[in-house]
Write a structure and sequence with these properties.
This protein is mainly alpha-helical. The protein is built from four helices and no strands. 77% of the residues lie in helices and 0% in strands. The longest helix has 21 residues.
Length: 97
């Protein structure tokens, strides 16, 4: 989640290189969670779609590259951030009111 927060913070500062870097790290985290979560875990079905969305949106960010306009990177980065938050909530890692 730290990478997702940093990604969005750098987006607000217009730092495309940092957005790409943190999004790639977030995608790596999402892939690691998917590989470590056993198929028998009931939460897997709830987090599969959001984590896959994190990976896909971050691939869009990476494809645009560090020389892209940071504004162009913010849309997929925002979608990746929302998906990451949904997956963390589904895993029960965030306290909800």
């Amino acid at each position: 989640m730290k990478n997702v927060e940093d990604m969005m913070a750098h987006g607000g500062m217009g730092d495309a290189k940092a957005i790409v870097h943190h999004c790639e790290a977030a995608a790596g985290d999402a892939e690691a969670i998917l590989t470590q979560l056993p198929d028998s875990d009931p939460r897997r079905s709830q987090v599969l779609a959001p984590l896959t969305d994190v990976i896909q949106q971050c691939k869009r960010v990476s494809a645009a590259g560090v020389h892209a306009d940071p504004g162009q990177l913010l849309n997929p980065a925002s979608k990746a951030s929302a998906a990451a938050r949904a997956s963390i909530k589904a895993l029960g890692l965030v306290k909800t009111n």
